[in-house]
Amino acid sequence: MKSKKKDIRALTKEQLREFFVENGDKAFRGNQVYDWLWSKSLHTFEDMTNISKETREMLKENFVINHIQVDSMQKSNDGTIKNGIKLHDGLIVESVLIPTKTRTTACVSSQVGCSLDCKFCATARLKRMRNLNPDEIYDQVVAIDKQSRLYHNHKLSNIVFMGMGEPLMNYNNVLKAIDKITSPEGLGMSAKRITVSTSGVPKMIKKMADDEVRFNLAVSLHSAIEEVRTSIMPFNEHFPLQDLRESLEYWYAKTKRAITYEYVVWDGINDGKEDIKALIDFCQYVPCKINLIEYNPIDDGEFQQASSRAIDNYISNLEMHDITVNVRRSRGKDIDAACGQLANKS
Ligand code: SF4
């Protein structure tokens, strides 16, 4: 039977303090419990050793601590680890640890499934079931930080919201999670090391700028030609490039922070001269850099990685126009943990 008790991690610190005062204890007890729940990421009341047994029993009678579990773990030859994460209601999302020589990055999910419909993405084939709660996003980071320390001997250095789901469609919870991740009372990570990657929701990009967020913004662009982008990312029909462009100009005017465009080049889809020209034109609007991402086919369908020649053409033309371009080799391909592959065969 499903528990009717409230998840204690849905309470703010102030609400926890009030709870203790209302129950005849000191407000300070709320700070202690908050510290166990977030900074120490404890998932059982029994282990809160500076709290009396009686108080722990009272907490157990009133609350549960919902938390995630690493349900499955696959390790790639390149050190990448893909985790199947079981949520408290049994649903599964995926999170990935991506190690390089200089950093370890957590790629985290923000929704179960996705409501958008990018044709090249395995997650798009899953119906969106629900948004993740802030603690479920936070817990993914904690779990991957542990793996980073265990398998790579150093703490997690970066976070990207590029797992399952569109983070800006779960904006409030993503922001609450990032608040906790960056707070000294949470994980104390720098916002500069966090990147939220969106498929491009103009209204929400403007909202982020208004909210003066401190993290980085990446946009999965993939084409700067309207018809091509709509054919591979059909929601583009509702959020056309002109609106996206205006929202990015707004973002830059307010934050003065450059944008990263994520860009995959597919054979016969966006590998022509006109595609490169459109991208170069689009790059003139706001300071930006391009991540050219290697693609991993999710089946034998229409999306196949473009030839090396086509990719070299992109690189040389972008560089000729002084646009910074990084080629991102995909990691964890052998375990379907690479970009666009989450939910593939899992
Ligand atoms: S690429 Fe991102 S936004 Fe598009 S369907 Fe996949 S998870 Fe959703």
Q: What's the total number of strands? A: 14
How many helices? The count is 10
Order of helices and strands: EHHHEEEEEEEHEHEHEHHEHEHE
Structural class: alpha/beta
Kindly, what is the distance between the CA atoms of the first and last residues, rounded to a whole number of angstroms?
A: 28 Å
State the strand order across the main sheet: 3-4-5-6-9-10-11-12-13-14
Mean pLDDT: 92
Main beta sheet: 10 strands, mixed
**Percent of residues in beta strands?**
15-25%
Cα Rg: 22 Å
Helix content: 25-40%
Shape: elongated
Parts with pLDDT < 50 across at least 5 consecutive residues: none
Ligand types: iron/sulfur cluster
Protein name: Probable dual-specificity RNA methyltransferase RlmN
Cofactor: [4Fe-4S] cluster
Keywords: 4Fe-4S, Cytoplasm, Disulfide bond, Iron, Iron-sulfur, Metal-binding, Methyltransferase, rRNA processing, S-adenosyl-L-methionine, Transferase, tRNA processing
Pfam family, one: RlmN_N
